[in-house]
Design brief:
Elements lengths: L3 H11 L2 H13 L8 E5 L5 H6 L5 E6 L2 H10 L4 E3 L12 E6 L9 H13 L1 E11 L1 H4 L5 H6 L11 H10 L3 E9 L7 H9 L11 H11 L12 E8 L5
Parallel strand pairs: 1-2, 1-4, 2-3, 4-5
Antiparallel strand pairs: 5-7, 6-7
Length: 247
């Protein structure tokens, strides 16, 4: 996994910046119950999306385990950011009307850890509250481009954020599917050159950056035309789950 403390300075610019944050926040807001007044943004990162979720009667708290990320988020939402682990959230039971986790579950080590995070999100939800999360993150980046064709032979671990798996984690905690939405990524279409850079900084977690497979993939990517031309942006999926009022 990438070191997200070190990634903080370049994180926003490398992942779509303001337009992507707007799209993500709109998708999350669209799945929240109209009477929600408090929202916890789990793994809030630099707070770019978190800041957009705040307002219009919604009080937002962000939590992140990376000191550098949390510090940046605090600059955007002073007094609203907490340092904490998503596997053991530093909040009492039933603290929030809604909880969201945008681009978190796909980073986790596997189903057991992802299930633990979903369990924590469910724990801090009030009865009638909603949990909103992105799913199928890695799959969204496969847009059928020539880059994807070069990358096809790479090993891929079972995704912890597969939609069906997330439904299972949620059901185990009594959460009921409540909605689904999609939104467009911005500035995240891969170029051959940026994909090579990602290979060698450990973005593809199953490929040792200095190993023979990385070298073969680098060669294939270097042979593609339009080295600096982005391929299509991904479209991301968001799902929501409701905690029954009589839970």
């Amino acid at each position: 996994m990438l070191d997200y403390g070190k990634e903080a300075d370049r994180y926003d610019a490398s992942r779509g910046g303001e337009p992507r944050a707007d799209a993500a926040a709109d998708a999350v807001r669209g799945l929240l119950p109209p009477d929600a007044r408090t929202l916890l943004d789990v793994a809030c990162g630099t707070g770019l999306v978190t800041r957009r979720l705040a307002g219009a009667g919604l009080r937002v708290t962000g939590v992140d385990s990376a000191h550098t990320m949390a510090r940046m988020a605090s600059g955007r939402l002073p007094g609203a950011i907490v340092l904490g682990d998503s596997r053991s959230l530093p909040f009492p039971d039933a603290s929030f009307d809604a909880v969201c986790a945008v681009w978190l579950l796909h980073l986790l080590s596997g189903a057991e850890e992802a299930a633990a995070v979903v369990a924590e999100c469910a724990r801090v939800l009030r009865p009638g509250g909603v949990f909103v999360t992105t799913v199928d993150k890695a799959a969204a980046h496969d847009v059928g481009s020539d880059i994807d064709a070069v990358l096809a032979p790479r090993p891929v671990r079972p995704a912890a954020d597969r939609a069906q798996a997330v439904e299972t984690y949620a059901a185990a905690r009594g959460l009921i599917p409540a909605g689904r939405s999609r939104f467009q990524g911005h500035g995240q279409g891969r170029t051959p050159r940026s994909t090579v850079e990602d290979l060698h900084r450990g973005w593809f977690t199953q490929i040792p950056p200095d190993g023979p497979l990385a070298a073969r993939l680098t060669e294939g990517l270097a042979a593609l035309p339009d080295q600096e031309v982005p391929r299509p942006d991904p479209r991301f999926t968001v799902m929501s789950f409701r905690r029954p009022s009589a839970w």
